[in-house]
Amino acid sequence: MTLDQRNSPKLLLGITGGLVAIIVLFLAYQWFFAPSNEVLPQHEATSLNAPAKPAAEVKPTEPAVATDEKTIQLVDEKILKAAVPENESLAKEEVAKLKDIQTQLKDQEAVLKAQHTDADDLVALKEEQIKLLEAQLAQKQ
Question: What is the pTM of this model?
Answer without folding.
Answer: 0.37
